[in-house]
Design goal:
Ferritin, 76% helix
Amino acid sequence: MTSSSKELQPSSMSFFDLLLEQFKGSDGELPTAIAYLTQATSEDNPGRKASLIRIARAKLRNADIVASILLQISKGESSQLLTRVNRREFETFLACNGVNAEQYAQGHHWLKDMANSEVLRETQKNRFNTDPTKYLQANISTEEKQIFIYKQLVEMTRDRNFISALNYVQARQIQHRDDLVELLRRLTR
């Protein structure tokens, strides 16, 4: 933990910890974005592939919003959130908090290189289920968890800028879930 984040009050610490988990945890924005990009590389259906890439792109933007909040908390600041995160500064922050920053950089890099999906497929080989029915069901479950966590995070803070950003991200999560439910419905009808 950075020295600034050590000085946070206990309730703030739980907010910080939950937010960090929402960024990098197994069901966090960054790993989920990478999972969706990986699923897209093995997807034969152009519509599902495009949807997964679109949702992954949004999840990386969500990760950037969460990153912006984490950086402000670590600095002891509360102000208008930056729309663009200084990635180097955030990668340094992640390293100081024991998080491998390489995955953050990879997610953004992979999104840019989706044209060369073979690279992504080989990098993530056998890591994720390639059965659309199974991965869509798992993705829906992940989105439900993320919606719940964002509700919790909103309840844990009084900072209006954070609340606004978290509500925005939560609304996107609801749309992601609904889009995934529709993809699964089309697949199983």
